[in-house]
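Quick one:
INPUT:
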């Protein structure tokens, strides 16, 4: 099939949008098509600098307004990487071929509710995207994810960490059950020979201040003080990144960083672990509590541990004298 104008649909969130970038790049490079991307305005900055995207469309509060504007574009292909009711409705109204991927919602439900092992091993979400595109002749180029940092954010980041050797510790996450607990953060900081830069939003400001007070010589705290672009710039120049299952985890993978992931309520088998591309060497280490009967408890997360003990994070073992684990 020859395509000239493609609409890619992914509304949110940071990490999920970053995971679509290999699709964007490969379609652009392999077909030369004009690439349009539909996204919620809140997350548009994630792809603002993506050189493979020709036009970004915002999802309006009134979906009918969005549909009207998109129908004027005369797309010949829609790639629905959101796959929810709104994306189905939008794609249905656009007179073009639509491609969707296998979302595995039932298998994830079985994993969460019945703890059944029905998920494919070592099958990343990005791989499932490319499986859906096989009939179009679009193939994975093996180069992994993309994240483009604005030059001014890159400059600001370099100024903030000038002359430093450091690791990044990501405190923030949308859900509490994906956040690294204070006690584990203390271990991460103590085991590092260099400085630790804390990144996250205002919602983790109290924790970041506590850690800064405990390690005044080792911690540099940027939580709630910088935006995503500058945070990405700081990640780019870090020696390694320690994080939960977060959007910054995927940005770090896009920047080909060494990553240690603390897995809480989610599991790598959901297919959203760090993706480097098959032409690059994987550089991540998973820390998780194996065999915990209540895990995974959600494919997304919760504001508190449903069981009240938060063992999925609290029981993660960080071996002393094994700083390479981090």
């Amino acid at each position: 099939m020859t395509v000239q104008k493609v609409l890619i649909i992914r509304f949110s969130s940071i990490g999920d949008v970053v995971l679509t970038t290999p699709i964007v790049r490969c379609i652009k490079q392999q077909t030369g098509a004009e690439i349009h991307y539909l996204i919620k305005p809140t997350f548009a900055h994630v792809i603002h600098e993506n050189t493979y995207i020709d036009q970004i469309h915002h999802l309006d509060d009134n979906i009918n307004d969005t549909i009207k504007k998109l129908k004027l574009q005369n797309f010949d292909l829609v790639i629905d990487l959101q796959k929810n009711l709104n994306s189905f409705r939008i794609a249905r109204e656009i007179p073009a071929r639509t491609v969707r991927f296998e979302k595995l919602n039932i298998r994830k439900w079985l994993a969460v509710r019945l703890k059944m092992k029905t998920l494919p091993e070592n099958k990343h979400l990005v791989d499932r995207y490319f499986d859906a595109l096989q009939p179009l002749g679009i193939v994975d180029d093996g180069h992994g994810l993309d994240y483009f940092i604005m030059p001014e954010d890159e400059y600001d980041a370099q100024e903030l960490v000038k002359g430093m050797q450091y690791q990044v510790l990501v405190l923030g996450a949308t859900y509490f059950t994906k956040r690294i607990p204070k006690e584990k953060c203390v271990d991460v900081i103590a085991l590092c020979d260099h400085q630790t830069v804390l990144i996250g939003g205002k919602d983790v400001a109290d924790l970041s201040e506590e850690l800064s007070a405990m390690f005044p010589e080792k911690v540099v705290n940027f939580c709630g003080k910088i935006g995503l672009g500058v945070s990405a710039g700081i990640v780019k120049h870090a020696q390694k990144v320690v994080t939960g299952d977060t959007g910054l985890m995927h940005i770090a993978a896009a920047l080909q960083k060494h990553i240690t992931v603390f897995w809480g309520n989610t599991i790598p088998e959901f297919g959203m672990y760090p993706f480097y591309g098959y032409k690059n060497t994987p550089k991540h280490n998973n820390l998780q509590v194996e065999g915990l009967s209540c895990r995974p408890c959600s494919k997304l997360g919760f504001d508190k541990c449903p069981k009240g003990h938060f063992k999925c994070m609290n029981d993660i073992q960080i071996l002393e004298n094994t700083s390479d684990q981090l």
